[in-house]
Amino acid sequence: MYVVVDERASVAESYVSAFSREGFSSQSFSGNEFRDWIETTSDQDLGAVESFLIGESEARITYPDLIRSHSKAPIIALEDVKSLTQTLELFTAGIDDVVRKPVHVREIVARADAVWRRVRSGDIQMPLDERLRVFFDGRDPEVDGEPLALPRRERHILEYLVKNSKRRVTKTQIFNTIYGIFNEDVDESVVEGHMSKLRKKLRLKLGRDVIDARRYLGYQYVG
């Protein structure tokens, strides 16, 4: 899930709509709403955040310290105009990347993934099973060099599991990442259906399970 913070509701909602069109869940906040949310939300909900996108807000210089006290997710500033002074100020404050608008959400996703790779000190494009290659730019994964066509949500689940291959993630974390933490229109059990279909497709192509499922504990990509 991508969190957008901007005092201009129309701008924030335009990004939410753009993420939705690309199949990514997102949520927008004003500055005060964001501060209240991040200080009170659960660790499980925060664990679903792929990146924080900070737009116009008088207090945005203070957000990196606030976010880092709760999450390691990349922090990307969205700028309306190019300004060296402002860019340097943002980096000094702890922003991970600064992007000038307009910018396509797929570029934002790619930039966030690049930051995650540095944080995790590993090349997450090559999972433990070298026959399987996972991308994070909208392309389907490949098995033995051939594309494996996956529905959008199954692809996002696979990407999320690969990014978090060193730990087990719960059904709730997957749901929050794929559908968003405020989505009340879809039942969390839908994850089990997506996961069953994804595991079957990977098993048919690779000849074995690369996703370990444990009742009550969740899922882990094991390669």
From TrEMBL:
The question of whether DNA-binding is a record keyword is answered with: yes
Entry-linked InterPro entries? CheY-like_superfamily, OmpR/PhoB-type_DNA-bd, Sig_transdc_resp-reg_C-effctor, Sig_transdc_resp-reg_receiver, WalR-like, WH-like_DNA-bd_sf
Task: Report what the protein is called.
Answer: Response regulator transcription factor
Q: Which residues form the signal peptide?
A: none
Q: What is the lineage of its organism?
A: Bacteria, Pseudomonadati, Pseudomonadota, Alphaproteobacteria, Hyphomicrobiales
- The species is Xanthobacter aminoxidans
Q: Which Pfam families match?
A: Trans_reg_C
Keywords tagged on the record: DNA-binding, Transcription, Transcription regulation
Q: Which residues bind DNA?
A: 123-223
OmpR/PhoB-type domain boundaries: 123-223
Location of the Response regulatory domain: 1-116
